[in-house]
Amino acid sequence: MSIIVGVEATVKPYSAVIAADTRAINGRQYELLPSMLGWKDSDHEIILGQLEKGIQTGTFHKIFVSPSRDTMLAFTGITDKLFEDIKGFLFEGPEHLSRKSGVAYYKNKPIDRDDVNPAMEMITPFAYKRDSEQRAIDYSLNPEIVDSLWNEYFAKFSLIERLLAGYVPEIREIVNVRNREELRRNGLINADNPYFEKPRWEENGAYLFATGAKVPGNELDFLSFDESPLEEKFLVFPIRSWGLSRRAQPFSAFGSGGQFALEFLNKELGIDPNGLANYEIIPNLEIDSERAVKLATKAVEYANQRDSIFCGGLDYAILTKDGVDKHFSDEETSGTIDMTNVIKANITALEQELLKLKKINYALDERAKKRDSTQK
Predict the structure, then answer these.
(1) Threshold 0.70, pTM exceeds
(2) Which domain range does residue 52 map to?
(3) Are 73 and 209 in contact (CB under 8 A)?
(4) In this predicted model, what pLDDT tens digit does every residue of 142-164 receive, in sequence order?
């Protein structure tokens, strides 16, 4: 339903570019097709009627710039409370959580039965006494203990260190808390619920976060710092909803058209992805600022052409030492998606996958027959 691409300039002057399409599905209509797979007879006419009407799309800018204009963020998913929490955390760091935690408020009164603060619960998940349905019923920590926890967290926190190390645990916890909150709201949580600590990761989107960082001038693998002098570079971190932020190459892509974008980037940069081990670094990729812009924008356009049902339009933004420079399109990408075409495309893709599996199965059968004949 979207495409976001990040490309870094690897030679001076350093910069980072994020590009994205501007088409978005209105509301939660994207759930229509999956819901067909498990429908009940009573849902039959309702779902078919909605599919006949098609899915409405609107124009939406998926690149967000921090108030300080020194970081930017692109997102695939729904811009709900979870997104706002993660965006605030990435733009502000622990100050965002501190501001939202309401520590001073809770020092003076016990919390109400349903008044659970996501940020406080993330930092001190054991801070609340709970009933059998896991709803908070009392604020059970001494205020001095809470203050101590916060002070220790602030002293040890460094967002850039977490990003460079490849994992941001706070993002995983924010997702945990918001998913538990949704389960509580829908009455699905109780003491025996096995899904209490199992977020639906695939439903929580993915992020590209661009920021500046002092790193070795000749290193892509920031986990093995050497004695090289540090330089201020601008990096794009691909972040999953479970907190993984590992980057091995100076480019990345997410969204329904992400594979098409990566196909384009690999081809343009002369990379054979089949010959790479997981997270293997390709040395000596020379990308200047102008080329970074072309690679990111052309990758989105390439993906738009191949995923034209769900993707369309183009925005991009450039992060340099002077801040973020936005280039947003005025193109209107609203419309209606014909679900007949979507269903046909899904059928074709599944038939192709089925054909591959049949060929593999046939080859295995033939090998087994040959092996059996030689053993007789």
Answers:
(1) yes
(2) 1-76+234-337
(3) yes
(4) 667 667 777 777 888 889 989 98
